[in-house]
Specification:
With 475 residues, the protein is α+β, with helices and mostly antiparallel strands. It is built from nine helices and 14 strands. The chain folds into two domains: 102 residues; 268 residues, no CATH class. Strands 5-6-7-8 form a four-stranded antiparallel β-sheet. Helix 4 packs antiparallel against helix 6. The protein starts with a helix and ends with a helix.
Length: 475
């Protein structure tokens, strides 16, 4: 064992501690950098020198620079993040739907229906009153226009949601391409024995974004590359990428490019948006369409049996429909037995076309039709959507049930979003406890490494004095 060996141990010790201080400084510099993982210098004893009487160490070596990262905590966070993103998307959309109805309100559909039935009751009390007939016509128009407005806003929300789906698909394709690029770079760097910590941090940040958008499972390969699967189907694996595309039908679907098979099991915000346009918005629209159809057919069935009286002396003529059911509907228009297309009948050109009298009436003083229509306030109607019966109740009760069900769903979605955000936040806290930077801890590490560096520097002085002693002995 030579003095030079001792000097070499001091030199490697100083180099190792200097590197450790540099890494601690890097950690402190990036303490607030999003996605940064705390790094540490892995020190190991150098290969010892073996003598016949034993082995003697040769100092310290830098084995590498590693990241503080826990794959299990990453997987937990990404799963909770996907659920939180989906729950928040659903909660926001249902809140917007609830805002469309705006109940309770003095100007909502519930108030419009009440005004419509009350107007018929007022007309029944005074069947020859032209002002009462005018109110009936106006309130009927208000019911139709309110349903029209609800349908248009639901259509607008659906369109906006579909645009969001397209944006998510575009972002997912961009992220998967970037992950594939990162895979190639990381494999290339680590194949030479070096660490690719900063590249891995960038890739993990992209994987976190992907999980919020589409969910899925991340699998790390032995060469350092990762694969991302959604419901068992590969989005990216190493340098290979499967791009997504949206099929804007009803229901909307997402599939791999040039594939006709929809991709099932999508999570995150994209999965929630698919569910909104495929299920939740159509369910609300179906109830509005059913309500419009039920009101139109029930009111017309009674109104068309009545008579209107014109002239002096009054001459009776058959009343027409109250609401329009023209087949086919006006060119470019919506089906008339829907919330989108509901409107007054063209035959109801003025208030004088509103019928109050029944078919057996001999004069305008009869109120059979007006009385029957006023009674619809509490008359049970069977509301259907295609071959499905949605309920049997009065129109007002059916609407109240629709609003109540929506309010319940919205509250459940908001509660779910709160729970999922809490879970994701807790998972991120646990993850940050491993990979996050504590500036206090790093400052302590710097002091420890500084002292070790100073001790190694003192060892250099000792070696220098020993060398000088040998030189003096040789004189």
């Amino acid at each position: 064992m030579s003095i030079g060996s001792i000097f070499n141990m001091a030199r490697t010790a100083m180099n190792a501690q200097q590197t450790a201080v540099q890494i601690a400084s890097q950690n402190i510099s990036n303490a607030e950098t999003d996605g940064y993982s705390r790094q540490r210098v892995d020190l190991a004893a150098s290969t010892p020198t073996v003598f016949p009487w034993g082995s003697i160490g040769t100092g310290v070596t830098i084995a590498g620079v590693s990241r503080a990262r826990d794959a299990l905590l990453d997987a937990t966070f990404r799963g909770d993040s996907a659920s939180a993103s989906a729950a928040q998307t659903t909660s926001d959309a249902l809140s917007q739907i609830q805002g469309i109805f705006g109940e309770p309100s003095d100007n909502g559909l519930g108030a419009s229906l009440d005004a419509f039935w009350s107007a018929w009751g007022d007309l029944a009390n005074d069947p020859t009153n032209s002002a009462a007939k005018s109110v009936v016509r106006q309130t009927g128009s208000t019911v139709a226009s309110t349903l029209n407005r609800f349908a248009r806003r639901l259509d607008s929300l659906d369109q906006s949601n579909r645009e969001g789906m397209n944006a998510d698909v575009t972002q997912i394709n961009s992220l998967t391409s970037q992950v594939a690029t990162m895979n190639r770079e990381i494999v290339g760097v680590e194949a030479t024995g070096n660490s690719a910590n900063d590249l891995r941090d960038s890739r993990d940040k992209m994987l976190d974004q992907l999980s919020g958008l589409v969910g899925g499972q991340v699998v790390e390969r032995s060469n350092g590359a990762v694969a991302v699967y959604v419901s068992g189907r590969m989005l990216v694996d190493g340098a290979a990428v499967n791009s997504l595309e949206m099929n804007d039908g009803q229901p909307p679907t997402v599939s791999f490019a040039n594939s006709a098979n929809p991709l099932d099991g999508i999570g995150g915000s994209l999965g929630a948006k698919i569910d909104l346009s495929a299920n939740r918005i159509p369910v609300v629209m179906a109830r509005l369409d059913s309500m419009a159809s039920g009101i139109v057919q029930t009111v017309n069935a009674i109104h068309s049996t009545g008579q209107i009286f014109t002239g002096n002396p009054p001459v009776a003529s058959a009343a027409g429909n109250f609401f329009d059911v023209t087949i086919p509907p006006p060119a470019g228009g919506d089906p008339l037995l829907t919330a989108r297309g509901m409107r007054l009948s063209p035959s109801l050109a003025s208030a004088s076309d509103v019928a109050a009298s029944g078919a057996s009436a001999t004069g305008p003083g009869n109120n059979d039709v007006a009385t029957a229509l006023a009674a619809l306030r509490d008359t049970a109607i069977t509301f259907t959507s295609g071959a499905t019966t949605l309920g049997t109740s009065s129109a007002s009760d059916f609407y109240r049930q629709t609003v109540s069900d929506l309010a319940t769903s919205t509250q459940q979605a908001q509660d779910d979003a709160t729970v999922q955000h809490t879970l994701a936040s807790n998972a991120d806290t646990r993850r940050q406890s491993v990979s996050g930077v504590s500036t206090d801890e790093e400052l302590i590490n710097i002091i420890q490494h500084q002292h070790a560096y100073q001790a190694a520097a003192r060892l250099v002085n000792v070696v220098d004095e020993m060398s000088q002693t040998l030189i003096d002995l040789g004189r």
